[in-house]
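Archive entry. Fields below.
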Amino acid sequence: EAGVTQFPSHSVIEKGQTVTLRCDPISGHDNLYWYRRVMGKEIKFLLHFVKESKQDESGMPNNRFLAERTGGTYSTLKVQPAELEDSGVYFCASSQDRWEDEQYFGPGTRLTVT
Amino acid sequence: AQKVTQAQTEISVVEKEDVTLDCVYETRDTTYYLFWYKQPPSGELVFLIRRNSFDEQNEISGRYSWNFQKSTSSFNFTITASQVVDSAVYFCALSAPYNTDKLIFGTGTRLQVFP
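PREDICTED_STRUCTURE:
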């Protein structure tokens, strides 16, 4: 069974540019989560999808971040325009059952904004 | 508010030494889960264990063991006879299901095991 995959693995962009991160969850997992780790700090929750619906987006930092999950399959996280403080590692995770299943994480996308 | 504290930023040991990674949590929920994840150099977060708040039994899995103590709000992780392959960043996390299933992570502890 394939794990959670994320693309790209690393992205370097200039301040003001747009970047789109992609996450493919484990097949059959309805729950998809985005997290971010900035500069050695804790990993912080961004948002949670159940199928194509946003269940909880309380962690989204501001309206420069837009997350979508087309047809309840893969998800994209767009940052527009990117700022220096957006640099970090963006993790995606998926789970089958919200309450009974652990979250399986992808390898992350390292975003560097210069 | 929920919070996870991993006071040890970095630990270095020599192979075959035992090492304990500390984790202290805060929550007002009576039902919660505690987790440990491992992040090897390849970058992905690897699930190690989930513990329910109602189950305080210690758990052992090979060289890994976990000590959950509600009285001190701690969920410590011990690696016995450490190996070079154990070198990684280890994260402790907390979730309070039936409220929100998002994970609250600590800042991680980097473990370096030298040969």
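CURATOR_NOTE: The interface with chain B takes residues 3, 9, 31, 33, 35, 40-45, 48, 56, 59, 89, 91, 93, 95, 98-99, 102-108, 110 of chain A (CB under 8 Å).
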